[in-house]
């Protein structure tokens, strides 16, 4: 097994996940099978109970794992399906060690961080790194490991110690470390000086912790000067080719191109001895890799030359941190790339749509954004804050024939809005949002444990069955009317009250998709509307650059005015409008 460790210094949040994903993509284009592991040093078991405004989106895998958003980058870049075990946290490791201690696994020894916790970390990595991640069901050739946070954090110490041991155990030629550092420009701007001292200190810290990086990926707002590269190489005792410059680009899809231009894949191939006779690739996988790279480069470069812009109003409650909706944003980007359009996401705080007296400026700005957008998207979330504003936006989309997509909570609010304003149900609400309402159109799922939060929702991939007589559906047309079942990832603990279904459908809101028992509502759609769709699942989790989510693609295409063309292209198996396979 070959390992590539991506660590960080100076500050966090400078793109370790994108650099790790891009490195994996480049390795995969050579015909290798690549897996990924994300290490998060926090004590939480997983990210499921974390506030989106603090930690960003909670990403969900097929098996129901709730984890860090970087796992979404890995799946999107590598076209893989990871598991809950591909995300390691301090909480998971300590839970594992404590469970072993309780059953006497350590034979009475005093259980300590070293060696018991550090050994458990290594065992976890070595076990999960070998788990197949694609349809070939083969053991991966290379595993990309991202260590969250920055070296020097007290939480990271056990993981750094474990990784230094893993580096020794793996042996020369089987382990490469990329250390991501930040190069500030003082003062900011084109005339500023690129400062290397933070990177020098970061390298000193990581080496004193027991790791010796092979490559330094330098993040900077602007391209690094050759003199800066030479200085970093000289002061850190490495060669200039071991300094990788990663400056700001127009889209993160350009990062693999930036790394490829600097021959990163050749450097890593040499360090990992990937061209040795024992690493001979399957010719078919090599051909697939080359094809994948070609398909990636074309739309990534093409985005810089598009002119038509489609404005999407994302009406949510966590808009202060865009990472809270990172997969939603990526799914919209994938749809835009397919349609050869630019996308402008307008972030609308839904609470600003509710009350003009609170802040007239915010109120009018928010409504101007909604009214001038080409499409309105209401994503998932929890809690009452901002929900009335979301329903007002949904009313606007429904009555003004604006393309609308509701995801999870967005779908439930669309049902509530319809019950209030069309069906005419008095005092209708949700058990979550309006516990004292007389009528609840949205209720707790019966299997949910109301007393616990972590891992108690309906999670992971579940099937959705298209109902008979729904061949008219605009969403279904994107799959082809012969497709009767799809599978999507879920994360929710509330559902549409089955006792209201008949009344709602008679009023014109159709439930075109249900679970296998026909009891749980999965998709709602209005027939006589350009695009009014709500989905209980999270289609953004399975959206990919080369395979956009059908729900997001249809919504975006309707907003862009090219839905019929997109339906025809998808049914022909084309990866973009005007391009045949």
UniProtKB/TrEMBL annotation:
Domain CTP synthase N-terminal residues, every copy: 2-274
Matches recorded under Pfam families: CTP_synth_N, GATase
Family, similarity comment: Belongs to the CTP synthase family.
Keywords from the named record: ATP-binding, Glutamine amidotransferase, Ligase, Nucleotide-binding, Pyrimidine biosynthesis
CDD domains named among the record's database cross-references: CTPS_N, GATase1_CTP_Synthase
Entry EC number(s): 6.3.4.2
Catalysed reactions, semicolon-separated: UTP + L-glutamine + ATP + H2O = CTP + L-glutamate + ADP + phosphate + 2 H(+)
Domain Glutamine amidotransferase: 321-555
PANTHER family according to UniProt: CTP SYNTHASE (PTHR11550), CTP SYNTHASE-RELATED (PTHR11550:SF0)
GO biological process: 'de novo' CTP biosynthetic process; pyrimidine nucleobase biosynthetic process
Pathway where it operates: Pyrimidine metabolism; CTP biosynthesis via de novo pathway; CTP from UDP: step 2/2
Gene Ontology molecular-function annotations: ATP binding; CTP synthase activity; identical protein binding
SUPFAM superfamilies assigned to the protein according to its UniProt record, in alphabetical order: Class I glutamine amidotransferase-like, P-loop containing nucleoside triphosphate hydrolases
A GO cellular-component term linked to this record: cytoophidium
Function: Catalyzes the ATP-dependent amination of UTP to CTP with either L-glutamine or ammonia as the source of nitrogen.
This protein's name: CTP synthase
């Amino acid at each position: 097994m070959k390992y590539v460790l991506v660590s960080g210094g100076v500050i966090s949040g400078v793109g370790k996940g994108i650099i790790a994903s891009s490195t994996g993509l480049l390795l995969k284009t050579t015909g290798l099978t690549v897996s990924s592991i994300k290490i998060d040093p926090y004590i939480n078991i997983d990210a499921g109970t974390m506030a989106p405004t603090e930690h960003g989106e909670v990403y969900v895998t097929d098996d129901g794992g709730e984890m860090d958003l970087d796992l979404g980058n890995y799946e999107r870049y590598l076209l893989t399906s990871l598991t809950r075990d591909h995300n390691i946290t301090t909480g998971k490791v300590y839970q594992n060690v404590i469970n072993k201690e309780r059953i006497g696994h350590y034979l009475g020894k005093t259980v300590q961080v070293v060696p018991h916790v550090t050994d458990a970390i290594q065992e976890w990595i070595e076990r999960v790194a070998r788990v197949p991640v694609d349809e070939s069901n083969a053991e991966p050739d290379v595993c990309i490991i991202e260590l969250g946070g920055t070296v020097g954090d007290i939480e990271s110490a056990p993981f750094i110690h474990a990784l230094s041991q893993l580096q020794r155990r793996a042996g020369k030629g089987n382990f490469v470390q990329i250390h991501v550092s930040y190069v500030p420009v003082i003062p900011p701007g084109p005339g500023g000086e690129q400062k290397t001292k933070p990177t020098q200190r970061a390298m000193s810290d990581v080496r004193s912790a027991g790791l010796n990086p092979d490559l330094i990926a330098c993040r900077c707002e602007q391209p690094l000067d050759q003199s800066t590269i030479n200085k970093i190489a000289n002061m850190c005792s490495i060669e200039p080719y071991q300094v990788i410059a990663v400056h700001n680009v127009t889209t993160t899809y350009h990062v693999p191109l930036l790394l490829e231009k600097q021959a990163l894949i050749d450097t890593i191939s040499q360090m990992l001895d990937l061209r040795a006779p024992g690493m001979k690739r399957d010719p078919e996988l090599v051909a697939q890799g080359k094809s994948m790279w070609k398909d990636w480069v074309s739309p990534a470069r093409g985005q810089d030359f598009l002119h038509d812009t489609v404005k999407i109003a994302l009406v949510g409650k966590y808009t202060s941190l865009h990472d809270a909706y990172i997969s939603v944003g990526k799914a919209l980007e994938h749809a835009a790339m397919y349609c050869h359009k630019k996308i402008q996401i307008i972030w609308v705080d839904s609470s600003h749509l509710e009350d003009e007296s609170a802040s007239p400026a915010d109120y009018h700005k928010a409504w101007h954004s909604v009214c001038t957008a080409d499409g309105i998207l209401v994503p998932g979330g929890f809690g009452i804050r901002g929900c009335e504003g979301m329903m007002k936006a949904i009313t606007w989309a429904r009555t003004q024939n604006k393309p609308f997509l509701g995801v999870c909570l967005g779908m439930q609010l669309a049902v509530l809005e319809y019950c209030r304003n069309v069906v005419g149900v008095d005092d209708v609400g949700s058990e979550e949002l309006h516990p004292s309402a007389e009528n609840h159109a949205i209720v707790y799922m019966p299997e949910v444990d109301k007393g616990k939060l972590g891992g108690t929702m309906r999670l992971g991939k579940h099937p959705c069955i298209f109902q008979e007589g729904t061949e008219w559906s605009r969403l279904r047309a994107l799959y082809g009317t012969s497709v009767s079942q799809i599978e999507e990832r879920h994360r929710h603990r509330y559902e549409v009250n089955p006792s209201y279904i008949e009344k709602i459908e008679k009023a014109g809101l159709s439930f075109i998709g249900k679970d296998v028992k026909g009891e749980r509502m999965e998709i709602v759609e209005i027939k006589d509307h350009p695009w009014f769709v709500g989905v209980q699942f999270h289609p953004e989790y399975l959206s990919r650059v080369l395979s956009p989510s059908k729900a997001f693609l249809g919504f975006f295409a309707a907003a862009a005015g090219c839905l019929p063309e997109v339906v025809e292209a998808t049914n022909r198996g084309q990866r973009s409008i005007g391009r045949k396979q």
